[in-house]
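name: query_chain
kind: protein
chains: 1
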Amino acid sequence: MVTLPVPGVAEQFMLRRDVTFLNHGSFGACPRPVFDAYQRWQRELEAQPVEFIGRRLRERLATARAALGGMLGVAADDVVFVPNVTYALNVAARSITLQPGDEVLTSDHEYGAIDRTWQYTLERSGARLVVQPLSLPFRDAATIVEEFWQGVTPRTRVIALSHITSPTALLLPVADICRRARAAGILTVIDGAHAPGQIELDLAEIDADFYGGNCHKWLCAPKGAGFLYVRREHQDAIEPLVVSWGWRAIAPRESRFLDHVEYVGTSDPAAYLAVPEAIAFQQRHDWPAVRAACHQLAAQTRQRVSELTGMPAICPDDPAWWSQMCVLPLPSALEPALEQLWQHDRIEIPTIRWQGQLFVRLSVQAYTSPDDADRLVAALARLLATMPRA
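structure:
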């Protein structure tokens, strides 16, 4: 039986106890100490808004960025807070100059909102999006790099990839791809929505040109906290999505990047300012050990479901391929019945239809118990038993 290595962590999350919550990957969940820090910042803001925003905010954001940069392995001024990854990658995509006939290469494992971001941007430049299939199952990182590189042509200007994919929950070998792209003079834009908090991150090692991440998912910060990292040589080219006082700033900082992105008018910065507490919460609770225990419980659950369905996993059971989130292949005929997981069993887990294959995507976080896994397996066994025989 898997038990979490740090007692008392699960109780600090505020999720409803009458729901089996196996969908941390969609929006995250915030533990009480982090949420309390978030609300303290909000109360201080409301007590004296002019002092907070007009006189102190820049300094406080710099302190929060320093904590975030330390976790990511980059300088504080090379990263800026944004509401989420979609916002971050919109900034990146719209700041890259492309010409008619240029190509942006991506994979068929990408998140729909980011695909739409590139399609919107490229329609205005005359460039085009090229989608390179990455076939399942995954077995070898070098093979994946080679398969992806088959999509590169002399017209490829940008590679846009997920670090951890949304529909298939797989860790892509982005550091290897970024190294090869840099040698070829191709820009890299990495969607790290699911990475911060779920895996150890060293952005200097990955060496992408642009990297967006969410803090509200696996880092367990409040909703509305994400970041954009940009290599220093590209920062002066960053254009704001919202033109406000940071554009042609009256009192400019050394970083045009921060001026353009950080200040877009009046908003509530409390989620950003609570990120250091989210980092500290995970440090206090030995998060590498928590992640390892979560992976073990997810792996056991994955194996039990595979025994029920007779369907193989899409990758080995190895943290090199996935951490706390994985997909469970299911027979396509089961899809109409899966709504019962919520309606009947109160199990919150997403159904994924990808390339004609059916999955549910399992997230295991510090609050997930073996009993939660048992409820999922029992519910799937019941639904599979009612399926018509072929």
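note: The chain has two domains: 10-30+286-385, 34-281.
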